Amino acid sequence: MDLPTHPRPEGAVHELMAGHAAQAAELLGHDAGRKVRLVFRLDPDIGSGQAGADQPRDFLCVHAPILIDGAAPRCPKPVARRRGTGRGAKADLLQFRPMNAAANSADPADQSLLAAAQRALSIEARAVQALLARLDGRFAAACRLCLNCQGRVVVTGIGKSGHVARKVAATLASTGSPAFFLHPAEASHGDLGVITRTDVVLALSNSGETPEVLLLLPHLARLGVPLIAMVGKPESTLGRAAAVVLDVSVPEEACPLNLAPTASTTAALAMGDALAVAVLDARGFTKQDFARSHPGGTLGRQLLLRVEQLMRTGAALPEVRPEAPLGQGLLEMSRKGLGMTVITDGEHRICGVFTDGDLRRTLDRQIDVHRATMREVMTSPCKTIGPRELAAEAVHQMELHRITALPVADAQGRLVGALNVHDLFRAGVV
Q1: Alpha carbons 358 and 377: distance in angstroms, whole number
Q2: What tens digit of pLDDT does each residue of 268-293 get?
Q3: How many other CB atoms sit within 10 Å of the CB of residue 6?
């Protein structure tokens, strides 16, 4: 079916194709604020004709009418200087100053926003504080169930409680308690098979009446699996079916409508963290245990990498004897690139070190550098580290003593390696 063309939009398209529309919008930034160069030469017939559709938007912080149906476009008054941009277009260079985020705003709208945020944080803080009075024998019983679990802690929940359950499961798993999240809706469609008789189930539900979670109860009862319920209503169906109930109820949500799960999810998350930390402490979980489940990233490298894995050995070690001339020590330090040379005896026992700092101090003392020996200018005794120490400990020693390199010594004090701050940087420990 052929429809008549609308003259104004068709004309507007031709005008745009002919280059009579806006040519450019350029955003410039500098330290003092933001400059926006806008080109305002728009055909008055490009309006859609729909009420409100052609009103200017808050684009690039410009609050001025640009498109006006049936009239020539009007440009905001320039606040800086006017420039031509070519092809007859006129551009206004507008200066905008960003709001100082640290300043106290007197805008009533801002005050209203801040008041709402303060109210939300206060409500959630009170919700968490109220949990302290509920840490009783039931909480200890929940901890014992997790500690005595021969299988895994299966954490379940749906909706916002499901998001919290995922986090609680991740925290338990990373702190020594094998755990995983089970989606209750998927459980009733085949995933129930992952739950075994040796597991413990931790179910989260604010109402305690979540249908998807309640469907799990008969299966758990058949298996005899202990159930810990973290609920906002202890007398709910889920609460009555559980072996242990953790009360995470809140008097109100932070949401002004008292509808969106806010304070209730914060309380559940805090109780889950408390459970994981209490179990962690009871297990005697160490930094090294934590590192084994976090091998990736800086944390894992700091807690797993040892000095012997990073240190330089063999021909890469800068080493001279105490009677060697200073010049020889300097050459050794330059060749090996560690910023130091280690002075050792005939059995490679460390006698001292000579560093860039020692060289400056030697020059300040006006020692004859052509006749001086390493024994005269070395620092002795010196700081060393063992090969089995964590690389993070090497970082700590360097920061504590304000040095950039360390000799590595065995139990008998013999030189077995050396490393500097650049080795630690490359390994990602720093």
Answers
A1: 7
A2: 999 999 999 999 999 999 877 787 77
A3: 10
| pTM of the entire predicted model | 0.60
**CA 233 – CA 28 distance, rounded (Å):** 56
Residue 158: how many other CB atoms lie within 10 Å: 18
1 is a domain residue: no
DSSP annotation of 193: G
Alpha-carbon Rg for the chain in angstroms = 35
SS3 assignment, position 354: strand
* Whether residues 156 and 277 fall in one domain: yes
Q: Respond yes or no on whether the N-terminal peptide bond of residue 381 is cis (omega within 30° of 0).
A: yes
- In the prediction, which pLDDT does 91 show? 41
Tokens, residue 101: 């985020």
What is the pLDDT at residue 104? Answer: 58
What's the pLDDT at 147? 96
Specify the number of domains making up the chain.
Answer: 3
Res 127: pLDDT: 97
State which residues form the domain around 82.
7-96
The Cα 372–Cα 374 span in angstroms is: 7
Cβ-based neighbours of 17, under 8 Å, separated by 6 or more: none
- For residue 100, what pLDDT is reported? 53
The C-alpha atoms of residue 249 and residue 239 are separated, in whole angstroms, by 12
pLDDT number for residue 97: 46
Is the separation of the CB atoms in 81 and 29 below 8 Å?
no
| Residue 383 one-letter amino acid | K
Give the pairing of strands 319-320 and 244-247.
unpaired
Q: What is the DSSP letter of 232?
A: S
The reply to whether 316 and 377 lie within a common domain is yes
* Residue 46 placed within a domain: yes
Counting as low any pLDDT under 70, the low residues of the chain are: 1-106, 296-298
Domain presence at residue 348: yes
Q: Does 376 map to a domain?
A: yes
* Residues 253, 263 contacting (CB under 8 angstroms): yes
For 150, which DSSP code? Answer: S
Q: What is the pLDDT of residues 224-256, one digit of tens each?
A: 999 999 999 999 999 999 999 999 999 999 999
**Which tokens in the block code for residue 78?**
């320039």
Q: Which residues pair with 204 in a beta bridge?
A: 230
